Give the backbone structure.
Amino acid sequence: MAKAGKKNPFKGRQFTAEIILWAVRWYLQFSISYRDLERMFSDRGIQVDHTTLFRWIQAYAPELDKRIRPHLRMTNGSWRVDETYIRVKGEWVYLYRAVDSAGQTIDFLLSPKRDAAAAKRFFRKALKQPHTVNPRTITVDKNAAYPIAMKTMKRDAELWRFAKLRQVKFLNNIVEQDHRRIKRLVRPGLSFKSLMTATRTIAGYEAMAMIRKAQVESAPANDMGAQRDFIATLFGAAA
């Protein structure tokens, strides 16, 4: 049941909040397609079309990302930043991602370009999050855009002036390994149809990953029941 005084995010839906959140949780954490999920529902006697499942993900994945942010544990000041590639409308775009030295997710940004402006947008987005701190060190690859972005942001007092940039590839293994999860999740869908649908879906992938990494104190990494209850609470729904 939605909490009194708050807008019910499931109002007007044909299916219950429990069914919708079940679909959202499972799609965002396992490597399955919308048609796979449609068959899983059918096995439970629930007939829901794969296009409806797509609409649910587009509506609730970014909402999950937004609602989870205030509940995340603080990340540390040692950032590991890297980009990977995602196919959108048949073209490759850049997915900027950052984790801290413990592997906790900091943030992500999907960008059609890989340049200093994109790097600054990513850093600014990450610095606004309630679970991040101004970094002591930022470890990146040899991309020349990062020194330019950091220099500009230090000059404008957007970044701590003593923050150190390290361009050492092997130190970034932790974020490169973390990319594999995103690649695995994206693969069943073959390609996103637009930058907006890609961004909304990936926001959900990242949010669910943060829960699975135990970045939420009340939802331990291997406790699926606690994770289910936490997400239901975020949306004001009965678990």
